[in-house]
Amino acid sequence: MNHRVPPAVVRGQVTMPVRQPGGQVLAARVVTFEGLADGREHLVVTFGDPPQVPLVRVHSECLTGDVLGSERCDCGPQLAESVARLGREGGHLLYLRQEGRGIGLYNKLDAYLLQDGGLDTFEANLALGFGPDDRDYTVAAQMLRAIGVEEVELLTNNPDKRAQLEAAGIGVTRTVPTRTHLTAANGRYLEAKRRRAVEQAWLDSVGR
Ligand SMILES: Nc1nc2c(ncn2[C@@H]2O[C@H](COP(=O)(O)OP(=O)(O)OP(=O)(O)O)[C@@H](O)[C@H]2O)c(=O)[nH]1
Ligand SMILES: [Zn+2]
């Protein structure tokens, strides 16, 4: 047991039929928790019977992309890709209530207005007085540990997710990249994320 993050426990589980992007319906187990560090209602959605080191997608909530189908970001198609892959191979989707990279829905929409004025997605957060990415993945580590998972294969292109999970004591044996989901409206957003990932990798390599 790792003591770097406070323990959470499983509060309940319920099975529901979930439609896959291809139309097939699979049983998914939805798990709720008690004791999560930020007090929010995050979920684990489990497909199949995952192995000891499961495939895991840590997805941050995006109401506009996940539910409304907004093409300003790539969240909706990334979620669909993840659900399809987890449905095929088995694994866990961690659906984290960290809308707008942790700044909330209204602030994200304010940030969109600033982006319409020329700022990129990270600059707009800074202009509103937030960090470029205010997400903390402590709750993800708590949830994984509560369901008995200490090591994962992580489905992501974001090096910060891996770094934060490892810092919280979850082993990441491999990162599996998600596909690029380009739309008519998300080119600048994807480019800003790519630039930031490169800069972050450089800072990590020089130990800053
Ligand atoms: N503040 C802000 N948040 C945004 C913007 N566009 C999308 N988001 C949020 O960004 C988050 C997307 O997160 P993820 O899909 O987990 O991930 P990611 O950081 O791109 O990393 P991977 O998809 O794992 O490679 C969601 O919470 C969205 O609401 C934006 O322009 N500004
Ligand atoms: Zn989004």
From TrEMBL:
<keyword id="KW-0547">Nucleotide-binding</keyword>
<dbReference type="InterPro" id="IPR032677">
    <property type="entry name" value="GTP_cyclohydro_II"/>
</dbReference>
<dbReference type="GO" id="GO:0003935">
    <property type="term" value="F:GTP cyclohydrolase II activity"/>
</dbReference>
<keyword id="KW-0342">GTP-binding</keyword>
<protein>
    <recommendedName>
        <fullName>GTP cyclohydrolase II</fullName>
        <ecNumber>3.5.4.25</ecNumber>
    </recommendedName>
</protein>
<dbReference type="InterPro" id="IPR036144">
    <property type="entry name" value="RibA-like_sf"/>
</dbReference>
<feature type="domain" description="GTP cyclohydrolase II">
    <location>
        <begin position="28"/>
        <end position="177"/>
    </location>
</feature>
<keyword id="KW-0378">Hydrolase</keyword>
<keyword id="KW-0862">Zinc</keyword>
<keyword id="KW-0479">Metal-binding</keyword>
<keyword id="KW-0686">Riboflavin biosynthesis</keyword>
<dbReference type="InterPro" id="IPR000926">
    <property type="entry name" value="RibA"/>
</dbReference>
<dbReference type="Pfam" id="PF00925">
    <property type="entry name" value="GTP_cyclohydro2"/>
</dbReference>
<comment type="pathway">
    <text>Cofactor biosynthesis; riboflavin biosynthesis; 5-amino-6-(D-ribitylamino)uracil from GTP: step 1/4.</text>
</comment>
